[in-house]
């Protein structure tokens, strides 16, 4: 009885930590969805560094998804942290490049709530790193012996499937945009090549 009472707060903290990571995964999936809406609805094609930022965001998401696998939870936060650090480096580089843009290399896309997407990516990366650090500090660095709530695992599975779908769509979109060469923001290269080939027939 006494031992159960002592371990209950730890279990509550672990459950709260899992809920926070699920909320983070859902929020990042929403960010990736907004990025694709801006691309397909508003016609804002991502630049090469923007595509790399999406890759880093997917890395964070895959780490969070891995956290909800009962057989390998301990490494999930680490993978997500690596993705967040990569996002910070890539977005920080683009932000610094755009502070004093070269002619013809101004910001790509419109501002969202007064900030351009690379700046938002820096803020997102810092928020993810802070949240993961708080997770490790409060809940603990390992998840051995902790079984996540079946309901949270089920919801995380649904969100994970959605993230995988977004990843597949981004991969196809990047191939259509870039082809096998360097990426540009002037259109979908593969579609243009296919249209030109049909026009010559």
Order of helices and strands: HHHHHH
Query: What overall form do the CA principal axes indicate?
Result: globular
Task: Give the rounded overall mean pLDDT.
Answer: 77
Q: Kindly name the structural category.
A: mainly alpha
Regions with little confidence, pLDDT below 50 for 5+ residues: 1-7, 195-199
Q: Beta-strand level of the residues, as a percent range?
A: under 5%
Tell me the total number of β-strands: 0
Main beta sheet: none
Q: Tell me the number of helical segments per DSSP (H or I, 4 or more residues long).
A: 6
Distance linking N and C termini = 81 Å
Give the number of domains: 1
Query: Radius of gyration, rounded?
Result: 20 Å
User: Helical residue percent?
Assistant: over 70%
Can you put this structure into words, describing what you see?
- There is one protein chain.
- The protein has about 200 residues and is mainly alpha-helical.
- It has one domain (about 1-200).
- Helix content is about 75%, strand content about 0%.
- The longest helix is centred in the first third of the chain and has 39 residues, at about 1-40.
- The model is unreliable at about 1-5 and about 195-200 (pLDDT under 50).
